[in-house]
Design brief:
Radius of gyration: 24 Å
Largest sheet: 2 strands, antiparallel
Number of helices: 10
Strand order of the largest sheet: 1-2
Shape: extended
Distance between the termini: 72 Å
Structural class: mainly alpha
Order of helices and strands: HHHHHHHEEHHH
Strand content: 5-15%
């Protein structure tokens, strides 16, 4: 009888622990944005893993290195197009860059500081292992140096090589029947914080200084805040 009572107590504790952990997991999900929430749920699903995939000749990869090469060629192949002149979608006329916005204005101390402080401090780090909170704590020591590098990068059109490194993760697309196909996976890349920091400042310049949204065609739905494929379909069906 003593053994049975201990077994019953063990089962009760296991059940209680499962409930507590599940509640904690759900609470963490609710604290995330919708995209992070989906990624967290997929990460918990261990049923589909990236193993051997089909090569272009139809055979399967035999080693992890071979699989990585196929996935990289499939998802990160670069086809560079010649640069086209900037054109105003509403008038069809060429757009010239307004010279009144100097790099000092774009990367002002106020913008640089605000851009970094708006990051979630515990956001996942890129391949350099640096999280936003690490830079936020040392903001007063690095803001001037960062602004100098960012201005030089903006003027020259050259991004520091160490900023271009990223960590890539392959996630299975739900509902696929053939996970030997490299395109049955999608990628998430974790860029370095300095690159995302600079991107945010440049985005503000495009949105606030240049008023880019006012210059876009009204039928532009891709990469627009508050717009999606559903918005485009709704417009077509009206």
């Amino acid at each position: 009888s003593e053994l049975r009572s201990h077994q019953a107590e063990c089962h009760r504790l296991v059940g209680h622990t499962k409930k507590v952990k599940f509640r904690e997991f759900c609470a963490k999900l609710e604290a995330k944005s919708s995209s992070k929430r989906i990624a967290a749920v997929i990460k918990e699903n261990k049923t589909t893993r990236l193993n051997s995939v089909r090569k272009p000749d139809g055979s399967l990869t035999q080693t992890p290195e071979e699989t990585l090469n196929v996935m990289t060629d499939t998802h990160f192949s670069i086809h560079r197009q010649p640069s086209a002149p900037l054109v105003d979608c509403t008038t069809g006329e060429s757009v010239t860059v307004d010279p009144k916005w100097s790099p000092d204005d774009i990367f002002s101390q106020r913008r640089v500081e605000r851009a970094l402080l708006e990051f979630d401090g515990l956001t996942a780090a890129g391949p350099d292992g640096i999280r936003p909170i690490m830079l936020q704590k040392g903001l007063t020591q690095i803001r001037q140096e960062f602004a100098t590098i960012a201005r030089a990068s903006f003027i020259s059109g050259h991004v520091p090589k160490c900023w271009t490194n990223s960590t890539g993760i392959y996630l299975p697309k739900p509902g696929k029947t053939d996970y030997r196909n490299p395109r049955s996976f999608r990628t998430i890349t974790l860029a370095t914080v300095p690159l995302k920091w600079m991107e945010r400042v440049v985005l503000w310049h495009m949105e606030v200084d240049l008023g880019i949204y006012k210059k876009l065609n009204k039928r532009q739905y891709g990469f627009m805040r508050g717009a999606s494929t559903e918005t485009a379909l709704h417009k077509i069906l009206q």
